[in-house]
Specification:
By secondary structure, this protein is mainly alpha-helical. 76% of the residues lie in helices and 0% in strands. It contains 3 helices and no strands. It has helices at 2-18, 31-34, 49-114. The longest helix is centred in the C-terminal third of the chain and has 66 residues, at 49-114.
């Protein structure tokens, strides 16, 4: 029986030299990773939903107000230019009518002097 055990035992010791050894996975970390960092980062206070929402509301309102202000300012400028053009056109029409009426009065005076 020992003759049977001895060759099998020798085969068991000789196998690792012939075949690559299978390594089991090692689930441990190195020492630098296990050490805690000496200087910890300062903890940031989380921004709450109310504070974040309030700041967002103020930012949105400000942007909407600024956009509205510039839109109204542009509309005012355009309407003011149109009104100014209409005033100049009316002034030119009144001046033409005034000149026409003056020429008619001169013609009426000339006709009355001939009589």
């Amino acid at each position: 029986m020992t003759s049977r055990l001895l060759p099998s035992a020798l085969r068991a010791f000789s196998r690792p030299a012939l075949q690559p050894k299978q390594f089991a996975r090692n689930f441990q970390t190195s020492m630098p990773l296990l050490e805690t960092p000496s200087a910890t980062l300062p903890l940031r206070k989380p921004v709450g939903a109310f504070r974040g929402g309030f700041i967002g509301f103020l930012l949105g309102t400000t942007l909407a107000g600024a956009g509205t202000y510039y839109y109204i300012l542009d509309e005012y400028r355009v309407s003011n230019e149109l009104l100014t053009e209409d005033i100049y056109a009316l002034q030119a029409a009144v001046q033409r009518i005034h000149n026409y009426v003056g020429s008619l009065e001169e013609k009426v005076d000339a006709v009355q002097k001939k009589k």
